[in-house]
Fold this protein.
Amino acid sequence: MTSRPAEQHPAHAADPHRADLGKDPSRVSGMFDEVAAGYDRTNTVLSLGNDRLWRIATTRAVAPKPGQRILDLAAGTGASSVSLARSGAEVVAGDFSPGMIAEGRRRHGDVPNLTFAHADAMDLPFEDDSFDAVTISFGLRNVNDPKKALAEMLRVTAPGGRLVICEFSHPQNPAFTGLYRFYNDRVLPVVAKAVSSNADAYDYLNESIRDWPDQKTLSTWIRDAGWTGVAHRDLTFGIVALHRAIKPAATAPAATAPGAVNPQP
């Protein structure tokens, strides 16, 4: 997938409402800042309520347990993070939009075991092997370099820890694909204009969904980043795919045979 760098359209640099934002981090962050207050409501309307089903499937795939530490990236206002925190796990809701973080803290600041943090997926502000699981829902396609983000997620996950990615994908049934494209191209813009504070932002999101690679390609990216046990399953006929993977366990140092002399450094 290609995206035009910000410097190719300087005339639009001060206009956060344009759909042709590319994936420049400051512009995309600003766009999410603007829609933060109504973001969850708009998503529920545009997804015909399926966003709640996708959130349930993601939570089950993460399988949070009390005492575990979980990083929820692109957490937005924290709806998915709250679902994870109810298990008793310690959840960090990370997002690169200050507006989303502020709205999340306003809504869920008193939820036990949940904290919010500014986090760029390509340069995570966490130590190596910090989390038992890392998850990201509908955010990887907005990252300027998704492959770098996958490597960063691997770095901060403990050996044996889990990765769960819930992301828009490509329906496999040709008839349903046609219906889905009609909805995205003709219906979604009209509905977004009616219910969103920034309909142009949803033009950008629609473009990002259309340009995002299919399930097989994303699985390859995850595997190439160093994850193992990579698998996925389709949700809602492939509109969304739930990808799962494991960070390889640390390799124990080879034991010295009895009577053997360790080599000198």
